[in-house]
Write the structure tokens for this entry.
Amino acid sequence: MSHDRPGDGRDDEDRARGRGRPLGTRRADREAEVGEPVVRGDPAVTGERAERAARFDPDDDESLAEAAETVRRFASEAVAGDDNVVMLRGAAACAALVRGHGSYKAAAEAAGDGVQVSFIRKWARVHDLPESVRRHVARGHIAPTAAKHIARVAGDARFDLAWAVLDGGLTVREVRRAASAINDGTAPEAALRAEGVAPGTLSVDLPLDVYRRLRDRASLENREPGDVIADSLDAARKD
């Protein structure tokens, strides 16, 4: 079994307990309880499978045992394949083991059967992604392998990478490179531009009457339509 890299142990254990996050990054982390099937249990996302969504309670020994078994099967890749919902369930089980046992290393030991610390770490961090990103993973819009790299970064960079997949067609390989660049100190916008993505660019369809009003207002105010939309969203957020 592999171990945490030097210098990682304290950070990983703090993250497992919910401590040590950089200030101002709460929105880019999971807000619901660990193990709760918030996305997997939503019929609007997973249909009839929502009724069977597993909940893993890190404070319950029986639930932790179920999580350990789920992780063992998940790590074998025998039940995962291309099923995004199953992969999110595996991620939830990894996160529950980390929270319940207090560290990535202890979680891997609880899973047994040669489950690697790095495997637990990667998927537990996917479970820690914000709900809006996880929903796109469940819908199949973001590949779980891309989500693993998105989860490597912190703060708003998580959103920047996720939305670049949706709006810029960023591939898994490009997400990996951008995540590595961001973790090496490159600004998210610069990292995305290096991959050929224009951050903040979004194509939308509007009702014709709304489109007319938007174009009219932007012209009268000598502004770009995107600036008008941005101001409207900011105003709505503050209300």
